[in-house]
Amino acid sequence: MALKSEQARVLKRHLLTRLIRNLVLFTGAFALICALLELTVMGSVADFVADQTSSWRTLDSSEQYDEIMARRGLEDTELTTLIANDLIEWGFSAVPGSAQSALTQDEASGTGLFDDQSLLLDQFRTVDDTMDDDSVDEIVQKTDAVENENSSIAVSTAGDKAAYDARRQERFNEVLGSLGDRQSQASAVEVATEALLQQGVETSGLSLGVPEAIQNARVSEIVKNAAFQEMSQEELSALSEEAFHTSQTQAYEQWLSLPAAQQAEALGLSSSVSNPHWQTVLNPDGYWRMRDLSTYYTIRSLKLPLLVLLLVIGWVVIVAQALNQSLRYFDELSGAVGKLLAHRSAPIKLPPDLAIAQNELAVIRSEALADERAARAAEQRKNELVAYLAHDIRTPLTSVLGYLDLLASPQELPPATQRAYAQTALGKAERLEGLVDEFFEITRYNLQAIPIERSNVDVRLFCQQVAEAFYPEIQARSIQLRISAPEGVQFFVDPDKLARALGNVLRNGVAYAEEHSTIDIQAKPTANQVQITVRNRGQEISPTHLASIFEKFYRADGSRSSSKGGAGLGLAIAREIVEAHHGTIGATSEGGVTIFTITVPRRPPRVQTMAPQTEEHSRDSLEEAAPNQGRHGRRSLQSGSAKRRS
Known about the structure:
Structural class: alpha+beta
Helix content: 55-70%
Strand content: 5-15%
Number of strands: 10
Shape: elongated
Strand order of the largest sheet: 5-7-8-10-9
Oligomer: single chain
């Protein structure tokens, strides 16, 4: 937009120069800082955020691990079957529930399964087909000697047979407890087999480290089988490590083929995780580790908006600083304006840099002085009209008092004369009431103070009921009144006040219409508004007067009194009411045809809280409002106005 003053152009040039320079410098520094942060610390920050918002998970490959170890021969089915068959031959019972008899059967057979120091490697000889008979006999003799020696040591150490039996019972209870839920139905063979396997593990000294990913594997069974096969610790550890790596690979491949929800469940997460962003890492120890980076990616997606926000904030600060520096030029100007408002006649002095502004203030001062003179002229005209009104009030008031005095005199008057006097006094009183009412209404009908109480009103019914109040006047002057409005169309207005506005316009049309002419009231609704026009043929309004007819205290005839016009407030009140409805009012006059146009929205721009009203209520409101515009309804309107004023 082009600036009108050289002063403004100079300030604009300085402002833009400083603003562009500062914006370029700030944007470049901001971009450089962002690049340095991205190259130096953003990687560490990203790792920190990822670690804080997500945790690593490992795949449970226990099932795959068990299957691999079973294929390597470390399974318990064959071992327990072979040992159980041998124990049955040695006299142990295979009947379910016979577990408690295993202790006595062990003592009777002399196997020493529940002795603390027993070395029962001879039990494994029955399954080693590679040994010849001489080797087996040699092992049996050595083992029996060790058993007898250890049994003697155990007894002598215990001190007596009772203590030895108590120790055997404790050992039996430990073995029985290791069977878990099966101990109530276990047989003596099962307890003895478990004791033999545990002694084999204790004798071999084998152990197996259990990684986190195979916590649920059958480790104890694997160790028992390894002891049975006489594996060394190195062989077992190597086999276990290989099986662990293979099981992790199989579990990872199986996990990749699962849907996202099942992948989350496999890692111990909620199945409700949507759109996961998995990060997978193969640990040097053979673990596959995963974590969901959805939260991290969500936070990372905010990085660009955050940077843009910081950049915009910096720009705003720079713009604010530039404006603040530039507006310092107006400190002197504001002081001059304040001085001008306090003393309009005082001279205006500004620094040379603001010489152009000084000249503009001088022009404003001259215009303000002219407006002040115009306001005084308007005030004088209002005072004259008040004087005219006082004369208009005095004349009908004198007539009313005179006729009432005649009616109140003791002299009897003929009934016809009494009616004539009363009718004349009533007409003068109504004239007086109308003048006073207009002055009261103008104090209340203004855009700020006028209260609008809306309800749904039928447009055609509204126009008809407003027009009904003027039938006596139009019939007296042989004027026809035509109404054109569609049926079934409603608008949301204050029926009382809008009826007042339309009535004032219609009263003006009736007052200045030619006799035997026609006044047309036409309503044209659209989607958003309703336009009501009042058209009459009669005295034309000049363009000069047409621009001022909606001003307060304006009368085109300029006379003190008029049989047609009032105090010059009717159309001003109509304008205030229409504008309070967020509408417009205007007038045109050409060729003796005058058209007043009222346009109001069908719905107000701002919804107001109000109690719902029925169509019957709207009709009643119109029936109350419409008569107020005519002669026979003045008392009801005056009464209502008095209540509102009180």
